[in-house]
Design goal:
The structure is a single chain. With 455 residues, this protein is of the alpha+beta class. The chain folds into 2 domains: 302 residues, BirA Bifunctional Protein, domain 2 (2-Layer Sandwich), CATH 3.30.930.10; 93 residues, Rossmann fold, CATH 3.40.50. It is built from 18 helices and 16 strands. The strands form 3 sheets. It has an 8-stranded mixed beta sheet with strand order 1-5-6-11-10-9-7-8. Strands 13-12-14-15-16 form a 5-stranded mixed beta sheet. The chain has a 3-stranded antiparallel beta sheet with strand order 2-4-3. Strand 9 and strand 10 form a beta hairpin. The protein is globular and about 90 Å long.
Length: 455
């Protein structure tokens, strides 16, 4: 017996109804991107490993999917590397390309490669899949879509405010109650500095980035294991758990970071961003969270993370300021800031809260019943007319029992059924039935179009 086919762990198939829901998310986000002035680009699914490696930190590099070279991928492998099981060396010799880990690094490569064609500041959006060799679990997949918006070529904090407003707009349109958490990497650098651990900033940010997953106690243990002395860990804990309003937290940080110029600069930026978004009266809760770190190495200023308030799930949107990401590709000093909507997690949230519009479940607006060749030919003419008027319609393909055709319409949540028999052909009319109310009327084609457009 043939083995039942399957798909790789961490990937998913999507049915027709699932795709209609996903497209609702993508369309909502895409409409928002365009409304806020962002232009769409796309980049290849695979990039050169030299583009990807070293941009996401040590842990991120481990999660890159590498692609074996075409043909004899073993031709450059040395016997001694095989014998010693030198995996990094073997990977370098056998793989030149990898699947993209996110959309930000490929975008940075795009900006450098096409610099002469771009007008700065450049606002781009991108909706494409990414891949990570992560351990699959609830809300975490190996293949998933990101919906990114970035601005490069401007250092203005107005960009951060606009991106927070964009997040608020999208989440309100989708009906998701969220908390938008904001911090600044300069504040984190200042904290490391006052703890006399400036050289361990990366260790600190990688550890506290896991605080929601493993808890504060385990974060403290990891910090000690990374070499941070216990006194510094004890001094860090109350900083990470600051409470009060955003302004109260800023005041406390000003006291803590009084000796750090970089920390004070981070506080200044935070205050500008938080006051800016507050002036726009967002529906979302916007909260300064000092424990927010976002472990990716390329962030240098504002960092953003979004949590759904009514569902237990990881962040559904994140992003931040990166002042020199393009520097690794030969263009130093080009500042940028961006966000990424996690479409797959947003999809899971909408599923759990059942927030989709009811009409998404309908395959078409009207189904024509097939009574035979003559009637079907007339129905096809009206189907074509409806489609030209922007109304989705179809003819049931086979002249089977009407009960079966009506059952199909019910199973597909079709809101209207149209029927054309000998009498309708003779009078140039159509019988239109509302499948919700059961009401049925005989209408001219023009009247049918008006009814379908109004409902």
């Amino acid at each position: 017996m043939a083995q039942k086919p399957s798909i790789p762990k961490g990937t998913r198939d999507f049915s027709a109804i699932e795709m209609s829901r996903r497209n609702y998310i993508f369309d909502t986000i895409r409409e928002a991107f365009r409304l806020f002035g962002y232009k769409q680009i796309e980049t290849p699914a695979m990039e050169n490993l030299s583009t990807l490696m070293g941009k996401y930190g040590e842990e991120g590099d481990k999660l890159l999917f590498k692609i074996l070279n075409s043909g004899d991928f073993m031709r450059s492998v040395k016997p001694e590397d095989l014998e010693s099981n030198n995996l990094p060396r073997l990977t370098n010799e056998m793989c030149e390309k990898g699947l993209r880990y996110d959309l930000t690094v490929p975008f940075a490569r795009f900006v450098v490669q096409h610099r002469g064609e771009l007008q700065m500041p450049f606002k781009r959006f991108q909706i494409q899949p990414v891949w990570r060799a992560d351990r699959p679990q609830k809300g975490r997949y190996r293949e998933f879509y990101q919906c990114d918006a970035d601005v490069v070529g401007s250092e203005s904090l107005n960009n951060e405010v606009e991106l927070l407003s964009l997040i608020d707009y999208v989440m309100e349109r989708l009906g998701i109650n969220v908390t938008i958490k904001v911090n600044n990497r300069k504040v984190l650098a200042g904290i490391a500095e006052v703890l006399d651990a400036a050289d361990q900033l990366t260790d600190i940010t990688v550890a506290i980035d896991k605080i929601d997953k493993i808890g504060l106690e385990n974060v403290n243990k990891e910090l000690v294991e990374k070499g941070l002395n216990e006194d510094a860990v004890k001094r860090l804990e109350p900083i990470l758990t600051l409470s009060g309003s955003n302004e109260e937290k800023l005041h406390k940080l000003e006291e803590i970071l009084a000796s750090s110029e970089e920390g004070k600069k981070g506080i200044e930026e935070l205050r500008a961003v938080l006051n800016g978004i507050a002036s726009l009266d967002p529906k979302a809760v916007v909260e300064l969270d000092v424990s927010l770190a976002r472990g990716l190495n390329y962030y240098t200023g504002t960092i953003i993370e979004v949590k759904a308030r009514d569902v237990e799930i990881g962040s559904i949107t994140g992003g931040g300021r990166y002042d020199n990401l393009t520097g690794v590709f030969g263009m130093p000093g080009l500042s940028g800031v961006g966000i990424s909507f996690g479409a797959d997690r947003i999809y899971d949230v909408l599923n759990q809260l059942n927030l989709y519009p009811s009409e998404l479940s309908a395959s078409v607006k009207v189904l024509f019943i097939n009574f035979g060749d003559k009637e079907a030919a007339r129905a096809m003419q009206l189907v074509a007319m409806l489609r030209k008027n922007g109304i989705s319609a179809q003819l049931y393909p086979d002249a089977v029992k009407m009960k079966k055709q009506m059952a199909y319409a019910n199973s597909e949540n079709v809101p209207y059924v149209a029927m054309i028999g000998e009498n309708e052909i003779a009078t140039g009319t159509v019988a239109l039935k509302n499948m919700t109310s059961g009401e049925q009327n005989t209408l001219s084609p023009e009247e049918m179009i008006a009814v379908l457009k109004d409902n």
